[in-house]
Design brief:
The protein is built from six helices and two strands; from the N terminus they run H-E-H-H-H-H-H-E. Helix 2 runs antiparallel to helix 3 and helix 5 runs antiparallel to helix 6. 21% of the residues are buried. It is mainly alpha-helical. Helices cover 70% and strands 2% of the residues.
């Protein structure tokens, strides 16, 4: 394993550890949104931005030569990764009701550390399997998919925390 791969593995490992072990409990308190905008309100814009950034990175860096195919796969993968966490919430807490209400009911930001893990687990196989035959360097494709998802996840997390604000 090269130094760069080892460093990348350590960075991803640290992110995963922080994601898994950062939890604060606020007993007998309710979450409320302070800002006028909620995560649901910015969802279409962050999805659009995520798709655009991932599409460009994954199309240009490993040189897939398949512009429309990459765009289609990015749309499918992102749709799955944005909706799956809320499907789990809906199945486990049916009282939340609509998708918008799930997001508004608590500190359900679109992106968290756990979401990054889910994104990689969901999107990576879709993107890799769909594009591995269109690139010469599959290791570069792997890294590109991973880095693109990390960049967009961090970007969405920063944007939504700047625009939407809540408190206990």
């Amino acid at each position: 394993m090269s130094y760069k791969n080892n460093l990348l593995s350590k960075i991803v490992g640290v992110i995963l550890i922080f994601a898994a072990f950062t939890s604060i409990v606020y007993a007998n308190s309710s979450w409320y949104w302070i800002s006028e905008l909620r995560p649901f309100d910015i969802l279409p814009w962050v999805v659009l931005g995520t798709i655009l950034v991932e599409w460009l990175i994954i199309y240009l860096v490993p040189k897939t030569g398949q512009c429309a195919k990459v765009l289609g796969l990015v749309i499918i993968a992102n749709t799955a990764s944005f909706l799956l966490p809320y499907l789990f919430l809906k199945m486990s807490n049916s009282w939340y009701g609509t998708f918008e209400r799930i997001l508004d009911s608590g500190p359900h930001y679109i992106v968290s550390g756990v979401y990054l893990v889910l994104t990689i687990v969901i999107e990576f196989p879709i993107m890799y399997e769909g594009l591995k035959k269109n690139v010469e360097d599959t290791k570069l494709l792997n890294k590109t998919i991973l880095v693109a998802n990390i960049i967009t996840s961090i970007g969405v997390a920063v944007v939504e925390r700047l625009i939407t604000e809540g408190s206990w």
